[in-house]
Design brief:
The chain is an alpha+beta fold. 41% of the residues lie in helices and 14% in strands. Bound molecules: zinc ion.
């Protein structure tokens, strides 16, 4: 993809996270890797529903970061950490989808063995302990889990997803929220039942794992 295509794809994902109610106001931040040294990321203090290609900020390693209007999101550090740790990842989406964030606030992990989507598509959704949003400490907490999964619940904060494409990172966010909604519904009507080991093995075999 050329730069314009990456920008278009990132802007589309921004509009989708806002349209789906995964963020409100200025919440959330999205990025894509352009090269080893360069990423594109959403600016601070802008509603994701209003982001255009011209608003995206380029951050280059070792160079002074823009300040004032048009500066990158304050949550830049965790994006940079993901790109440092995961050479397979090209995009990062961070949002506060309300149901999944509810689990994160309650400190309750989303069950990993209740739905085929989690078993096959996500594998696991680690619950990362709280650290100040935007801090190097939060990036370091996520670093402990970043090789184990593509979706992370951030305690008392929200959700972080990563992908080999911008679409993949975005769809991963949709899946996390959808699963969280279903588990919440299961808890309201009764108790979630996890799949048995043999059922999980059969599922993985069917999906060619
Ligand atoms: Zn946040």
């Amino acid at each position: 993809m050329n730069v314009d295509e990456v920008k278009k794809s990132l802007v589309d994902a921004c509009h989708r996270v806002y349209a789906r109610g995964f963020v409100a106001g200025y919440e959330g931040n999205l990025s894509a890797r352009m090269s080893a040294e360069k990423i594109l990321i959403t600016p601070a203090r802008m509603c994701k529903g209003d982001v255009t290609a011209g608003d995206l900020v380029t951050v280059e390693r070792g160079k002074t970061r823009p300040k004032g209007a048009g500066r990158p999101t304050a949550e830049l550090e965790m994006h940079l950490m993901v790109y440092d740790e995961r050479s397979d990842i090209q995009a990062v989406v961070h949002a506060h989808p309300p149901i999944a964030t509810g689990f994160a606030i309650a400190g309750i992990p989303i069950p990993e063995k209740a739905l085929p989507e989690v078993i096959v598509a996500l594998g696991s959704i680690p619950l990362v302990p709280y650290a100040l949003p935007g801090s190097a400490e939060l990036a370091d907490e996520i670093r402990k889990y970043v090789h184990k999964a593509d979706a992370f619940l951030l305690a008392n904060h929200g959700v972080l997803t990563v992908g080999r494409t911008i679409e993949e990172a975005y769809y991963c966010m949709e899946t996390v929220e959808q699963v969280a909604k279903s588990v919440l519904a299961a808890r309201i009507v009764g108790s979630p039942v996890e799949l048995a080991k043999a059922q999980i093995e059969a599922l993985k075999k069917l999906m060619g794992e």
